[in-house]
Amino acid sequence: MVHKILLKISKGYKRRYKAYKALQNFKTEIIEDVNYTDTIAQGQLELSKKPYRFEIINFLLEHFNSDTTYLEIGVRNPEDNFNKINSKIKFSVDPGFEYTKNPVDFKMTSDTFFEALNSNTILSKEMKFDVIFIDGLHLADQVERDIFNSLKFISENGLIVLHDCNPPTEFHARESYYYRNSPAGGFWNGTTWKAFFKYRQRQDLFSCCIDSDWGVGIISKTRTIGNATKLKNEYYEYHVFKDARKESLNLISFEEFKQNYTR
Does the reported pTM lie above 0.85? Predict the structure, then answer.
């Protein structure tokens, strides 16, 4: 009886050991996979790029000839960006799903905010902002609505700024924020690039994307910061975007942008 019990324990141990070894081999294969390691490297490279989004926004605000009005959509922790913005008048919008303290001016979604703004429920439908920063839900349909609504309330020479327009890999451009079992980990740009690219095709708008801080996109009605793209990607496929990244985004360095902007 004792022999049978020991034999059973031994077999169980061997099965667990085989499973353990298989898992270790699987982990090794993943870590040695080129796509896996490249995604990690691309993410780290993006983290090293400067300037940060608030520095770019402050540069834009500095070049207005009068006091400015600023709106931020998607604040989360205001210490990350909003509190660092230099504008005489500032407003913030965030429903507080990700940051429970949520010390913002309007605790609501951007859709609700713009609806209330348009109906004179809050502020005034005549309100015009000099810079609107969009950094809310990083899904193309939501970002598209945020751009559409922002265009109604931007000043004549105003600028719409978007974060996360340049996802370095397809893992970073996944639709689900909550899927963390990838080499991108918790870094998520979502599908913002699709909405930005869609508006890049508008002939009546100027746009570019600064190659820094995960891609800082800029859209203007009047400032000639970049002409519309003629590139076709009708199904918004990532591999098409990746192969023509520069043209898709009008991707430029901050130094290039400053030189053109201040001429």
Answer: yes
